[in-house]
Amino acid sequence: MSIVEFRGVTKTFGTGAQAVTAVDGVDLAIEAGQVFGIIGYSGAGKSTLVRLINALEPVTSGQVLVDGVDLSTLSERELRRVRAGIGMVFQQFNLLRSRTVFGNVAYPLKVAGWDRERRRRRVAELLNFVGIADKAWSYPDQLSGGQKQRVGIARALATNPKILLADEATSALDPGTTAEVLRLLKRVNTELGVTIVVITHEMDVVREIADRVAVLDDGRIVEEGTVYDMFSAPKSATARRFVRTVLRETPEGADLERLRARHGGRLIAARVDDAGRLGAVLSDAVSRHGVRFEIVYGGITTLSGRSFGGLTLELLGEPAGVDALVAELRTTTEIEELAR
Ligand SMILES: Nc1ncnc2c1ncn2[C@@H]1O[C@H](COP(=O)(O)OP(=O)(O)OP(=O)(O)O)[C@@H](O)[C@H]1O
Questions:
Q1: What atom of ligand 1 comes closest to residue 219's alpha carbon?
Q2: What is the ipTM of this complex?
């Protein structure tokens, strides 16, 4: 059973000519223990989707199930219980400025009726986990963005939720701090077993921590799958655009013009992955086909622990030899001609 499931969910705001369909016929299954990314541009409906999961908004049609229970069948009191099992982390942290770090993290425990001693022990444990035990008596204004988000995460985890919703949790942070916060979220997933739904407009965030990803475009899921599959073979135009923001393995525009100006040989872009034998074919290129090559662009990274990337090669030799090499390369990996 999925921990979160959407069945034909539509959410419309307003009526008549003013109606806006923010979520449009979404089917989605998030399994327990996953980090699930939902990526989309501004206005795609991401925040609305999140608000449907924690029942801050009712669906217009369809069903949202949390732990197998259709939220629309629950009373307000039962919904509060479901919400208590879902933590939330926000882009703007949403900390109480008048309370210390300790006070912010203790707040949901107080609301849940924990006594003072239990609260103290739990907050200490949480602050240790997120690495800001030394800031317990500081106020939010005295903290950096990354520290504030650690407090936000500690607060979200206070009552031991099974699900954590992170809505653009790193969008207000610089790249270095983003990486630290993402590592912390990954630990929340692996060490505490919390299922995390990450809402973002940044493909880097998806690449860093998600297991699976859904692409939301104009309220619809246009693509869904493992992060590796989406990066290595994006199917929708929106997914391809997102992937290109992170992986610049194929030169375009001015980069491509510069390469063409500098390199007279035939330019091809080759995909590199775990299965490919690009290196093996290239190392025999001279002896088998009389073709030399130069690596002129690209990069290789890891995705979900697997190699992934692309290299642009300049192939130098007799046209027939180059043709034969390209044909051989095509049998091992994806090749794109960067024609003049
Ligand atoms: N309470 C509301 N009343 C009316 N329209 C709304 C409401 N909430 C969202 N919308 C509309 O629904 C659409 C999706 O908005 P939503 O905030 O879910 O998108 P988003 O992907 O989270 O965008 P952003 O990243 O900019 O927040 C938008 O057109 C928005 O104007």
A1: 14
A2: 0.91
